[in-house]
Design brief:
single chain; alpha+beta; six-stranded mixed β-sheet; two-stranded antiparallel ribbon; 24% helix
């Protein structure tokens, strides 16, 4: 947890992953139309996570995974993204549709682990309860992705092992292999 808190930034350097922008809006209002590249898979995971988490709604997160997982993959009952939304809402003492909770998920760094591909994104998660001060922490997600039809989806089987949530730009984030994300114009 300490590594996820805002902290000392490294003077070192790391690479940059160029990620494409979505070309259209797909099922459950998730951005899509990414190329069949590892960068496209990473961009699709970012779009899936942002729609699910930023919705502040367990029902929306369930709708997202129902539309964006391959058969045999995570379900509305098992997906870590649904559990994350549920946990955020519960910790704020809110119901399953946290209309007074504003969640912003900014992708900062990414990691492409192999050609399967298994992709990871390290976000800055900002949570604000209406009228309150924003709270920030790093939150990472890793998923095995697969190309299905004309788009990337979360692959069948178990979810990828979690990577540490590390404050973007810290030496620990560089040591873990994260690289900065840059969205293509």
């Amino acid at each position: 947890l300490d590594g996820a808190q805002p902290g000392t930034l490294s003077r070192g350097s790391t690479g940059v992953i160029h990620i494409p922008q979505p070309r259209s809006l797909g099922e459950a209002q998730v951005g899509t139309g990414f190329p069949k590249t590892t960068e496209g898979a990473l961009a699709q995971l970012i779009a899936i996570d942002r729609r699910a988490i930023e919705s502040s709604s367990v029902v929306t997160a369930q709708d997202v995974i129902a539309a964006w997982a391959a058969p045999g993959g995570p379900t509305p009952d098992s997906w870590s993204g649904v559990a994350a939304v549920q946990s955020l809402l519960e910790s704020a003492g809110l119901p399953a549709n946290g209309s007074v909770l504003a969640i912003q998920l900014e992708p900062a760094m990414g990691l492409i682990q192999d050609e399967t591909p298994t992709v990871c994104v390290d976000f800055i998660l900002t949570v604000t309860v209406r009228g309150g001060q924003p709270a920030r922490i790093a939150a990472a997600d890793c998923q095995h992705m697969t190309w299905m039809g004309d788009r990337w989806v979360i692959a069948a089987g178990d979810e990828a092992a979690a990577t540490p949530s590390l404050w973007p730009g810290s030496q620990a984030s560089y040591d873990a292999g994260y690289q900065w994300l840059e969205v293509e114009p």
